[in-house]
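Lecture 7 notes: from sequence to structure.
We start with the chain below.
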Amino acid sequence: ASESKPDTLYSSLYLAYSYPIGINAPDFFKQYALVTSSNKHVLKPNPAIGIGYKYQVGDVSRIGIFFNWYYTRFSDSFHQKIYPNNEESPQRFLIEELEIDNKIFFLTYDYCPYIYKQFHSYIAIGAGVNYSNISWHEEIVSPLPNDLRTTGSRLDDHFFSFSSRVALGVELGWDKRNASSILGDLILEAAYTAEWRYITMFRDFEDQFIEPPSYTKNKYRVIPHYFTLSLAVSLNLMQVL
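Predicted structure tokens for the same chain:
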């Protein structure tokens, strides 16, 4: 692959398909287990979709924007003693549905020392905002007609929070770049994303108990971090010098 410097800088538009690894909310699920007596604590990940734009600003640097969308959910069902300290206590049946929808906007910087090679690697950092919706619904069937624990929405709201990411990738050019090439690269990337999203997850539990527990006012960091493995394709957009 040639290392010769062309008379054109390259910007690119790219589409990414990625799979999140390690999506969880350990602080929330620790309290969830105490409230519900359920030991289930795994969020189900779904593939993420992203679109981005990178603008070459020098021989080793690119700046850009990146939008990433991913959705995850949690489902649970179980029986729970109404009177925990009574072995003969009647039981209520609960169905839990938690959904987290994430739309993240990043500003990015790439360090790409071999950018003019057909095959080259890069290191990227990014910072941005996650606009997310968290929805949590409980369905409760109880033998007690006056049970305070009733069916309803426990949380349904939108949130803004700060996100950051660091990534290591490889771009495999389909062909040597020239002024007429539109098809860019096949991109393989591994990334780590951290999120600073603190939510009062149990705030609507106050009317589910005679005396509201103290944890209803506590904030929990939801999905503090995760890894992604991505496959992307890019299109070249020219910047004539």
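Points to note: The first strand starts at residue 8 and ends at 21. Residues 104 and 199 are 17 Å apart (CA to CA).
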